[in-house]
Specification:
189 residues, 72% helix, 8 helices, mainly alpha
């Protein structure tokens, strides 16, 4: 079996960290748990990343970039309402299929609030920079309309909260959403 390169190992750490942080949050996740999931020692983990915060921020960055990629791919060649529905449909499908992605997003927002209460602004700066890239990604396909972008992202945050709370597809809380924004079950594509 071929040995993994440092970059491949780094990728496996980001995937493992996403799963662990999604479940336990920043403060509730140990680097030991991440190292164990990857199958490396903690000292090796710290050769790849300088510390827990760097691991968390790498996982957060990946989560944002995956969301941006999902929106870009879904809206390619589309504008306005067509882009809106394509992005909403793609996003709700992804969070139904990859719940750790959704939970990582939720943990990112909690980590920012907790860190800033402790006087650490680095979390917030990094997550807000990612959020602004996300904003820009959906803004243009929605006609560069700030109201449309805000409404789309507001629905997205509501979808995140309802999904994180476990409201199943078909529950009445989804009735007010346009069909492409309703959460889909694994069989409901």
């Amino acid at each position: 079996m071929a040995r993994m390169s440092a970059e491949e190992r780094r990728e496996s750490v980001i995937r493992a960290a996403t799963a662990e942080f999604a479940r336990g949050g920043y403060h509730g996740t140990s680097t030991e748990a991440i190292a164990k999931r990857v199958g490396v020692s903690q000292p090796y983990l710290f050769r790849l990343f300088p510390g827990k915060k760097a691991i968390f921020l790498a996982a957060a960055e990946r989560c944002v970039e995956d969301t941006i990629r999902t929106f870009r791919e879904a809206s390619k060649g589309l504008e306005g309402e067509e882009a809106l529905h394509a992005m909403a449909d793609a996003y709700t499908r992804v969070i139904a299929e990859r719940p750790e992605w959704l939970m990582m997003q939720m943990q990112m927002y909690v980590a920012v609030g907790a860190a800033e209460q402790e006087g650490d602004i680095e979390f917030g700066e990094a997550v807000r920079a990612g959020w602004m890239r996300l904003w820009d990604t959906v803004h243009l396909p929605l006609g560069a309309d700030a109201n449309e972008t805000t409404t789309f992202l507001a629905y997205g945050m509501l979808i995140n909260c309802l999904t994180a709370m476990g409201f199943p597809p078909g529950h009445r809380v989804w009735e007010g959403m346009y069909p492409s924004a309703r959460i889909k079950g694994r069989l409901e594509h």
